[in-house]
Amino acid sequence: MIWLMLADAIVVIHLAFILFVIAGGLLLLRWPRLVWLHIPAVIWGALTEFLHIVCPLTDLEDRLRGMAGVAGYRSDFVTHYLLPVIYPPGLTAQIQLALGSLVVLLNIGVYGWLLWRLPRWRHNKEK
To answer: 33-47 burial, b for 16+ CB within 10 Å, e for fewer?
Structure first.
């Protein structure tokens, strides 16, 4: 039972990481120093898509499920709602490349907007 709970926790952490990669740049408005975590996360997220690298979190989750004696996923909230988001059916190499490109372009846009806004933010802060 503990192994399944740990595997489910890894899925939640995996989803949180994916969300951080995609939209974490917006957190920089509140916590600018987060940039030192976000940039490497975006690079890793894009590389896993571009190079078809299996994320270590996926391997850890599989290993924990194996330790629990479960070959597949059991039907629960995590499996039903979170796994299809992280591992969509029909995921192809072309879709992975598109997703990786989308992540990079989205974050370039967010960082560009933040850099454009930075002088205005500093100017208003000094007043």
So the answer is: ebeeebeebbeebbe
pLDDT tens-digit readout, 71-109: 655 544 456 566 787 777 888 888 888 888 998 999 999
Structure-block tokens of residue 72: 């597949």
99 and 28 Cβ atoms separated by less than 8 Å: no
Q: Is a pLDDT exceeding 90 seen at residue 26?
A: no
Report the phi/psi class of residue 90: left, alpha or beta, with left for phi > 0 and alpha for psi in -120 to 50: left
Residue listed under structure tokens 């004696």: 69
Dihedral angle at the C-alpha atoms of 47, 51, 57, 63, nearest 10 degrees?
-170
Residue located via tokens 């595997």: 7
